[in-house]
Automatic annotation (TrEMBL):
CDD domains membership: NHL (cd05819)
Name of the protein described by the UniProt record: NHL repeat containing protein
Keyword field: Repeat
Organism: Didymodactylos carnosus
Residue spans of the NHL repeats: 280-316
């Protein structure tokens, strides 16, 4: 692992306990009117994740910094000087983030506060040995600390094993296009470690979610793929995804439709779970939402990028009576 040039001490000790996925149910809903998370004036959040203590980690593109917002309302700057894209927090509360401008993926280690490079060599390109990533966005870190990266401008997903000096292509890599073995600017991704190891990818300008099984040479469209539009069988600029491995429901940021949708694997259409009431700044509206995160209480936090705010949609606990469906 190569050391980056920025080192900022963490101001708090966080237990590196395993972060358990919040189980949902097939009938889960969230209250339609969100509350706005207080942020400093002038903030412009573009990335978000929630740690095991329900603190929010937010990337602010004005300060180029990773900010930590504690549940008691206080905050802390963890590190600055980055052009972060997606964030991912592993089970030890280490914070991984893609730096799309500098073409690498980094990790801020929970126990030391040290930032190190885990993938990419800082140069844009499509090196045949997969040494490089070009404008990386979505990331996922599995239980073995292997990092999956949406290598956006290279139209592929690459996997870097823990400590590796180069990655391997696990999806795409066949130039830009709309065929089943191609991507058009992949962004968010999720790996199902519980069921079949499938890699779910937001194929953003193909307006679809593609699922690639391990070793597959083509992907399968599991959401969207019906051109861009606002119907519930369509997506318009999907940018991030989370899959509940219990219910097999995909939660997707449908960015240009200003909504978050839930889409059951195998279904022909989705349902709106947040936003979807036109572009705006009302409590039930979003404007170009980018990323989202769930806390351990199943509350939904959305980066409402166009409104420069973070919206919290409270989980409706009465909507779930059976967590085995």
């Amino acid at each position: 692992m190569r050391t980056a040039t920025h080192l900022f001490p963490l101001g708090t000790g966080i237990n590196s306990a395993t972060t358990a996925q919040s189980r949902l149910c097939s009938s889960a809903t969230w209250y339609p009117n969100a509350t706005t998370i207080p942020l400093p004036n002038g903030s412009w959040p573009t990335g978000i994740a929630s740690d095991s203590q329900q603190n929010l980690i937010v990337y602010d593109q004005i300060s180029y910094g990773l900010q930590k917002y504690f549940t008691n309302g206080s905050s802390l700057t963890l590190s600055t000087g980055w052009f972060a894209g997606d964030l991912f927090i592993d089970r030890y509360d280490n914070i991984y983030f893609s730096d799309h401008y500098n073409n690498w993926v980094l990790v801020l280690t929970n126990t030391t506060g040290k930032v190190t490079i885990v993938a990419g060599n800082g140069a844009s390109g499509s090196d045949p040995n997969e040494l490089q990533v070009y404008a990386p966005s979505g990331i996922y870190v599995d239980r073995t600390a292997s990092v999956y990266i949406a290598d956006t401008f290279n139209q592929r997903v690459v996997k870097w094993l823990a400590g590796a000096q180069e990655g391997i292509v696990v999806a795409g890599g066949n130039r830009l296009g709309s065929a089943a073995n191609q991507f058009s600017f992949p962004q968010g991704l999720f790996v199902d470690e519980v069921n079949d190891g499938g890699i779910y990818v937001c194929d953003s300008t193909n307006e679809r979610i593609q699922k690639w099984l391990p070793g597959a040479s083509i992907g399968i469209t599991v959401a969207g793929g019906n051109s861009w539009g606002s119907n519930l069988n369509q997506l318009n600029g999907p940018s991030s995804i989370f899959v509940d491995t219990n219910t097999r429901i995909m939660y997707i940021t449908d960015q240009a439709n200003n909504r978050i949708v839930g889409w059951l694997l195998g279904a022909s259409s989705g349902i709106v779970i947040a936003g979807g009431n036109g572009q705006g700044n009302g409590a039930n509206q979003l404007s170009s939402p980018n990323q989202f995160a769930f806390d351990s209480n199943r509350n939904l936090y959305v980066v409402d990028q166009g409104n420069q705010r973070i919206q919290k949609f409270a989980f409706n606990a009465s909507s779930c009576t059976n967590y085995n469906d």
